[in-house]
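Example record

One chain of 145 residues, shown exactly as stored in the release files.
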Amino acid sequence: MSSLFCQNKECCYKRSQNQIRGAKGNKVYQSNKAKSYYFSMFCSQGCFHTYIKDNISTIQNAIPIIDKQTIGVSDAWEFRSDYNYSGGDRVHTYYVYNKLMGVNQLITRQQAQTPEQIRENYGWHTRPNSEAKEFAESLGLVVAM
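Predicted structure tokens for this chain:
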């Protein structure tokens, strides 16, 4: 559940014109409303960063730091979509990609997208990357290690 107002307790001290509330003689500065693109908890990126700075030790105690994570060369497959605007036409090209292996294989839209994504007609969507390794194997792109 999101809060209606910014969760940075210092937000009301910005003292901007849009924060003034109340009747004449009884005015106050109030926190800004939270915006959906800042986790529905903050009014701005600045308030988000102040909140994190002030609460980082509490956050780290609640959620322990994880050790280094890696993805091996055989599991680094992903689907990619590129967009070009050429002569009035929108052109999307699709790839199955593995940067670690230096592979960037051109594929069709039907291979890169689910039937639902094709129906939605959002050209930049691709299948989940969790399906990319199996797809690359079906094309013979995965080399046995």
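Notes: The chain has a mean pLDDT of 89.
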